[in-house]
Amino acid sequence: MKNMAHQPSEKEERAQAERRERKKRKKRRKERGSIFSHIPFILQHVYYSYNNIYLKDYRPYQQFIYKQFIL
Hints:
Number of strands: 0
Structural class: mainly alpha
Number of domains: 1
Number of helices: 3
Radius of gyration: 23 Å
Distance between the termini: 66 Å
Largest sheet: none
């Protein structure tokens, strides 16, 4: 009797899988950050496309936008 491992029922297995999935989703969400942390990037994208500024002038505008909206 000792070496018989506990076989999780189908319901328990499903619950465990669900928990694992939820944990993964939470982790991914944490990595992605909140929507608010994306706002400067969205704004800078709009700014670039509006003024037709592309990647050659990317850095200074990034700093500019951070100064404007973050600090």
